[in-house]
Amino acid sequence: MSTPPRSVRSQPAGSALEGDRALAVIRRLVPSDQVEVATEHGQITAFVPVERLLTVVAALRTDPKAAYEMPVTMTCVDWPERDPRYDVLYFLRSLVYNDLVAIGVRASEETEIPSLAKLFPGMEWHERECFDLFGLRITDHPNLIRILLPEDWEGHPLRKDYVSFGEPVAFTHNLEWALSPQDRPEYLPGAVRGSVERP
Amino acid sequence: MAILPPTKGDGTPAIGVPVQEGIPRIHPGGQGEFLDKIEPGEELMEINMGPQHPSTHGVLRLVLSLDGERVRACRPDIGYLHTGFEKSFESHTYQQCIPLTDRMDYLAPPINNLGFALAAEKLLEAEIPPRGQYIRVIVAELSRIASHLIWLGTHALDLGATTAFMYCWRERDKILDIMEWISGVRMMTSFIRVGGLLADVPEEFVPMVRAFVADFPQRVDEYEGLLTSNPIFRQRTIGLGVLDSATAIAFGCSGATLRGSGVPYDVRRALPYSSYDQFDFDVPVGVRGDVYDRYLVRVREMREACRIVEQAVEGLPGGPVNTSDRKVMLPPRAEIDNSMESLIHHFKLSTEGFRPPPGRVYSAVESSRGELGFLMVSDGGNRPYRCKVRGPSFSNLSALSYMVQDELVADVVAVIGSIDIILGDVDR
């Protein structure tokens, strides 16, 4: 046991918003018309072009004023109706400044996303997980095989078009979700005209 | 071919096959070039450890490449307990997800409940009254102690010290009695709900917790008397599985695995939630980053958790435990008899639940294993559009290959024990 060798401050230093510190670094590297900043619940997500991802993350890690050294997690959100459909999100934490930033990349099924495993060995398993459950195309990865599912599994379960189980049961509150347009009562959005009589 | 990972399920050990030149050396576990030390021409034996090995704490399979007794490479193979919680979340309402979170880190379910509830409450912007927050803290810290007790017992058992196991179970049972008293269930309590708690605690709760808190520090002394200065235990653990702070951070380790390496990062201190900023507690850190330091950190953490519980019980405020927002939490039973609006809220919440506004939030809590994060995305519906769980054991386990490099095969169990994985948390 010893006294703490380095301090972690208990409040985000110098900024009210989480991730504020990262924006200065990103703005320096990427033209501002290519960065899309979303602020939700006091947390900043910066969407950058996929070809700038490695540069941005490497700078965030090494810049002494940012020092986002800890790979927290990487994940993906699927919006199947949108093009490109995936929001790939990288969460990095700066222990020195006690700050969290989310770096996002918009990707389609064909987009080749560079692996961050060279920068953060801890990202490697997270990338394998995204490859496994979403089928993201990650390039330059040291060991890109399925991590949670068996190797012969078909499909990528966390995609929204992958049906998880069974047949949806229709209750009054979930008719839109459970019924196909043909089976929906006329008064619900998306229903085919004249499909089912109003009860 | 000894280095190429075998296909999943095909555990045929390749005995004494030399590594051939020209074959791309996929590193087992693949964690960066600093692990990649195997020379071509080296004769290695590849053996399976797990998934049914009792010392792997669940269904973890390790493919070990051995040079005699030395581990030259270790490839963890996970996914045997993959349950698809993240997919299940998407087809359950928010409150229905709470029992699912119990099953992830099944040794400390209330902390999982708390993590999920806090993320959903951030989306809803719901405020929890102080009494609710304090009871959440007490329950979470008690389950942290219970979880550390299981870790201590099994870790000592792995190293051949059977006595500590029995004593640890005795104190854990007292905590489970408290859990049973407040929620009716011993393990999968689902006590912490989105918007508050299952119910206010019964009046026997405070004396029960007081009795436990008064007794527990002496019990920790007992465990320490069995292990801390035990020469056999020290010889087995000091200098073993060393993880320096920079590597621990680069792997995304958290919890005692990170603090054992000397980085004082604790979510309760760095980003206080649920009124943790009102309690006085220390964040213990190690110096060497070995198995023994991680042991010391966790034992100290039990004492600190006990201190937090003591402060929370003594300062337990009165008042309601649930948020007053009737769009989130069920109204009290008496109110339904008098108010039509309450009846409507009750009906709507019971049948379809609440609908948070669209948004995305990442919220983290300090579980007994490290930073447990929930990324929650709402599209305005009554079910999470996407809920990603950042299991602390997942990142901690990815550093295992690094830690057991060039250690003896008998020490692998000690290292696994020291990072305290729960496979339900790894595989989710």
Molecular structure report:
By secondary structure, chain A is α/β, with parallel strands linked by helices. Chain A has helices at residues 20-29, 53-62, 123-134, 175-178, and strands at 36-40, 43-47, 70-78, 86-94, 99-107, 112-114, 137-139. Chain A folds into 2 domains: 20-148, 2-Layer Sandwich (Beta Polymerase, domain 2), CATH 3.30.460.80; 166-199, no CATH class. Helix content of chain A is 18%, strand content 22%. In chain A, strand 6 (112-114), helix 3 (123-134) and strand 7 (137-139) form a beta-alpha-beta unit. In chain A, helix 1 crosses helix 2 (53-62). Chain A is globular and about 60 Å long. Chain B has 2 domains: 15-77, no CATH class; 85-322 and 356-390, Orthogonal Bundle (Cytochrome-c3 Hydrogenase, chain B), CATH 1.10.645. Chain B has 17 helices and 9 strands. Chain B has helices at 85-89, 94-102, 109-124, 130-158, 162-183, 205-227, 231-237, 245-250, 256-259, 267-270, 291-314, 333-338, 340-351, 392-398, 400-404, 412-419, 423-427, and strands at 15-18, 43-49, 61-67, 70-77, 192-193, 196-197, 359-366, 371-378, 386-390. In chain B, strands 1-2-3-4 form a 4-stranded antiparallel beta sheet. In chain B, strands 7-8-9 form a 3-stranded antiparallel beta sheet. Chain B has a two-stranded antiparallel sheet with strand order 5-6. The chains are: A alpha/beta (199), B alpha+beta (428). Chains A and B meet through strand 3 and helix 3 of A and helix 1, helix 8, strand 7, strand 8 and strand 9 of B.
